[in-house]
Amino acid sequence: MENVSQSTIKGTGVVAGVAYAEAVWVRPRPELPTAGELIDEEKRDGEYDRFLEAVDVVASRLEQRAAGAEGQAAEVLGATAGMVKDRGWHKAVRKSIRSGRPAEYATASATEKFVTLFEAAGGVMAERTTDLKDVRDRVIAQLRGEQEPGLPMVSGEAVLLADDLAPADTATLDTAHIKALVTELGGPTSHTAIIARQLDIPCIVAVGADLRNIESGTLLFVDGSVGTVSLGANRAESLKAVEEYREKAARVAQWRGPAQTKDGHRVQLLANVADGNAARIASDSQAEGIGLYRTELSFLSASEEPTVDEQARIYAKVFNAFPESKVVVRTLDAGSDKPISYATLSSEENPALGVRGLRIARDNESLLTRQLDAIAQAAADRGDDVPTWVMAPMVATAVEAKWFAGLCRERGLTAGAMIEVPAAALMADTIMPHLDFVSIGTNDLTQYTMAADRLSPQLAYLTDPWQPAVLRLIQHTCVVGSDNNVPVGVCGEAAADPLLACVLTGLGVNSLSAASTAVAGVGAQISELTLEQCQKLAEAAINAEGPSEARTAALDLLEEFKA
Ligand code: PEP
Ligand code: MG
């Protein structure tokens, strides 16, 4: 490709695929107002009415978009509209207007108070500040008669550039026009990355400030598998690469499971789900079952623990989507970035290293046993030969594994553990004899191995699942699994990357679980290589100096095998 070295910027590729199109920036956020002059007392009621009118327009626009959307997109838009209509926020704005502030400034300052509160609360609350600021910006733009910030209307094909995307924007991305997403901030597990993965469009995050030098209208070649954005790329070569990618996508769409390598080595491909709805969607994919049901996601907004019967009904919806197939249920992974009010300690200095996952049950065993009772109750109608597996998150020691396995077996459940704490990988030989299976959570295993917060955009270069240090821990776990006859799965985001999935297969992983949209891509890629070729990729990756080198080494070998 021409001029690539001078004109390529790099970020973290989170969804593979290539695109060649003009850059379009998400419409800028409005400048935040300064306090300005106090307004006359008799005009203040009218000023508040002006605010309410703007709120009405913004909320009904979002509601209209929600009505035209489906599933998660409709939910996100509906929730954003709900925030615009929030009484508590209106009250704070009214107070500010009554003290003489113009509506624009009152909107900004009232929002700031909530942002500060949410940031102090941390975790999921802190993540909602993006939504709050999004609502603020929409209302301020409306008050000023400016265009609504956020997604522009795009008629041709475009690569969407943004600092980060608000949920309301990502929820309604039109993939007929938007061919790739590139953001300055964000990380592999950020909202933008998750939505891009669902929409299956190439996505690069954490590019950094260099992105701002690209103007709307610039032609870009984006390669999501290596995380590069190239300016001035050769047009013919770029279009050829896009065409090849399309052909590959068509092959993926044709792919039918069950997954196996070219020489017949079976790898079980499963789906990660959050609820019954996602499980139904997964049942239409090529996934053979569920490899990770994140139960905590059903309870994020619950103020009280649901009863055993209520929980059983929720779990049954997931089982019903796969009545004859394997379902792996993970017990509550509350805490850290997923606080649950009835299960999580209210204040911890360092929640990612705190009382999360299985650790919560140490002082509250009955919370866990009630959940296991509910899982057993929901699974009671499943046939004896239909695998219903249960695993605990954040297991770090053999004592924890033994304790958890005992509680599962008392209820006739097959017991496993996530391997996501480096200690568990290193001590796998002491942990596995207590268990029926393990599943490696590469998101947390990477976070804890690299000592890098998985939510930090600045550390995305460290929280890369291609980190050879992480791959070595996976390799060790696979060797111990095979010695102990304990199946080893991977259910972190690593399993969604087709090339990395081949590396994992080469390392000896028996099953891979990923977002259902990723399953066919992974299966198709595995089918193109022999087990021995996967092993060669694995060897190259674990011996590389860093994640980029590991990825490049694997890609080079792939080209060699094709030739
Ligand atoms: C992981 O850590 O890789 C994992 C699958 O669990 P979660 O992303 O829910 O922490
Ligand atoms: Mg985890």
UniProtKB/TrEMBL annotation:
This is Phosphoenolpyruvate-protein phosphotransferase. It is found in: Cytoplasm. Residues 157-227 form the PEP-utilising enzyme mobile domain. The keyword Metal-binding applies. InterPro entries: PEP-util_enz_mobile_dom (IPR008279), PEP-utilizing_PTS_enzyme (IPR050499), PEP_util_AS (IPR018274), PEP_util_C (IPR000121), PEP_util_CS (IPR023151), Phosphohistidine_dom_sf (IPR036637), PTS_EI (IPR024692), PTS_EI-like (IPR006318). Keywords: Cytoplasm, Kinase, Magnesium, Metal-binding, Phosphotransferase system, Sugar transport, Transferase, Transport. Belongs to the PEP-utilizing enzyme family. It comes from the Bacteria. Its EC number is 2.7.3.9. One of its GO terms (molecular function) is phosphoenolpyruvate-protein phosphotransferase activity. The lineage of its organism: Bacteria, Bacillati, Actinomycetota, Actinomycetes, Mycobacteriales. Residues 10-128 form the Phosphotransferase system enzyme I N-terminal domain. Residues 257-528 form the PEP-utilising enzyme C-terminal domain. It comes from Corynebacterium striatum. Its cofactor is Mg(2+). General (non sugar-specific) component of the phosphoenolpyruvate-dependent sugar phosphotransferase system (sugar PTS). This major carbohydrate active-transport system catalyzes the phosphorylation of incoming sugar substrates concomitantly with their translocation across the cell membrane. Enzyme I transfers the phosphoryl group from phosphoenolpyruvate (PEP) to the phosphoryl carrier protein (HPr). Its main location: cytoplasm. It catalyses: L-histidyl-[protein] + phosphoenolpyruvate = N(pros)-phospho-L-histidyl-[protein] + pyruvate.
